[in-house]
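Much of our argument rests on the idea that a fold can be written as discrete symbols. The amino acid sequence and the backbone structure tokens for this protein are reproduced below:

___
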Amino acid sequence: MKKLNIYWSRRDFRLTDNPALHASLEKSKEKDNFFLPIFVLEDYMRIADPKYQFGYPSRYFLSKALPEFSKNFKSFFILKGLGAKSIIDICKKINKDFEVEIFVNEDVYLDFYKQVKKITKNNLKINIFKDQMTVDANTKTLTGNYYSIFTPFKKAVWESFLKAKEIPKVKESDLAFVNYFNLSKVDKMKEKILKNNFESLIKEFSENRKLKIPNSKEIIDIDSLLDFKPDFENLDNFYFTEAEAIKRFDKYLKKDIVSYKDERDFLDKDKTSKMSLGLTFGLVSSRTLKSKIQKHFSEDFILPSTSDSNLGVITFLSELIWREFYKYLFYHNPNLMNQEFQEKFRNKIKWIDDKEAKKRFTSWIKGETGYKVVDAAMIELAKTGFMHNRARMIVSSVLTKNLGVDWRWGQEYFRAMLVDLDESSNNGGWQWGASVGADPKPIRIFNPYLQAENYDPQNIFQKKWLGENFNKDIKPIVEHKEARQSALERYGLANDKNTAFRDY
């Protein structure tokens, strides 16, 4: 019987280090084997439905990345529907004549294994390849438990991460001369939306930005709150292809990575790699970035001492492992989107009432908290879909600690707004900022004034996004001194003599 090898593309729009694509192509070189690349454009990717929360900047980026990636193939099948169901429907139409085998890269997000289960229930063979996580997801401590703190996790996986092998780039000849499956047998499927007409794809994407308030039926139309629309020109500047991602990172290696540790936190400097976009959409893998670092410096790198000359590089590699750590937590704790990692805080924190929370949350969204560094960061996010990691720490701490708003509200807003949305990193960042996640510190309270002084000392960042409002004396919603004490009370730690907290 003839064999059909389906490459199910998800967040892996690249030819380099793409294990599922590589394996499906290799199989398709064999006699009587055919190749079919598929992407399923699901509702959450297309529309502004708050129950899905795939924000407009992410939709915009996808509308660019998907057509670009598909150009590599003679035929690339894009379906509109549900991932597993669409794959199953295709298979049902052709498995009478073909033995079907599915190749897909592992996706740590919530619905992936549910979809895999549906596929296997239909007696279809599926091959899952390690991708978003380079390290072993089942890595345990010496006592047999899963890790809950980053530093010991990093030490445990550091060597295996450095030794992870990158799969070479797929050759053009492999893509051009492989036996592509004739789509005429499934052309009449209702889910089919296009082959080569990408204009029809782009029209599928909604520009609206909405969010659903957690544990409520209320929907917030974000654009009705804001005085400004996304900066489309800026979004175009954010977008890059796989080839451009490699070029940008090569430039970053030569110029900025050695000073990464010392300069990455400054809001007024452009010293980060911006590879979060590439990693989120799979335009580049962490293995590729790691391998390029090793090759550039001709070094395999070991965990450093505080005097190590490679601290900038080591810190960058550590950040790649941070992304994997959050995926690791997600993998073992599928309820983290709605539930605190630390059990002691579950249903224990006394968030302010919903009426006042909505008022403060709205001010936070609009960049009207009275904390200038927070307001500047929120305006940048609303206009560009991007926010510096240091700024993310500050605004999350202020929303939860100073304003007393449930961290889940901030998480949902970021899901609706970020161009580089990574679910696990976003969740991990918000739980960290709210002091309810995988963090050994009992509680961290960021002082927005001190943060601005330390990381925007010349006020360059704040002036850029606040404009003339920078010079206005706007009283904060809650004075920081008062907020600090009320935060401790809200978390039930005010009378805990053993609680150590730091005003960062």
